[in-house]
């Protein structure tokens, strides 16, 4: 993923948080933008194992997490800890702006 310029990042942050009045609304705004714009499902590798990212969720105490699936196993991984494939999926700039 190409690194966002400061102006690009600022524009995405503004778009995600335009109506946010506190940290919970700020987090919720980013969750919506990531969920709406990140092309899913996509495959990536987590700890040497290929998984499919099926979605993102907003979880109390964990923040925004990616739902990773392999067979019948599911694991939530913090979106900022998720290794993205090369090339990254469309919409991954929202993760970078959230970072």
| Largest sheet: number of strands, sense, barrel closure | 4 strands, antiparallel
- Beta strand %: 25-35%
Q: SSE order, as H and E?
A: HHEEEEH
The N- to C-terminal Cα distance equals: 13 Å
Query: Which structural category do the helix and sheet elements fall into?
Result: alpha+beta
Mean pLDDT: 91
Strand order, largest beta sheet: 1-2-3-4
Q: How large is the count of helical segments? A: 3
Specify the overall morphology: globular
Describe this protein's structure.
With 99 residues, the protein is of the alpha+beta class. 33% of the residues lie in helices and 30% in strands. It has helices at residues 6-17, 23-37, 93-98, and strands at 42-46, 49-59, 63-70, 73-78. A four-stranded antiparallel β-sheet has the order 1-2-3-4. Strand 1 (42-46) and strand 2 form a beta hairpin.
């Amino acid at each position: 993923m190409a690194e966002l310029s400061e102006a690009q990042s600022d524009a995405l942050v503004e778009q995600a948080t335009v109506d946010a009045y506190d940290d919970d609304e700020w987090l919720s705004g980013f969750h919506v933008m990531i969920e709406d714009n990140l092309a899913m499902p996509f495959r990536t590798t987590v700890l040497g194992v290929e998984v499919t990212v099926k979605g993102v969720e907003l979880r109390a105490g964990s923040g925004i997490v990616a739902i990773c699936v392999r067979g019948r196993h599911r694991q939530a991984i913090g979106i900022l800890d998720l290794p993205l494939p090369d090339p990254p999926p469309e919409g991954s700039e929202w993760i970078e702006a959230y970072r």
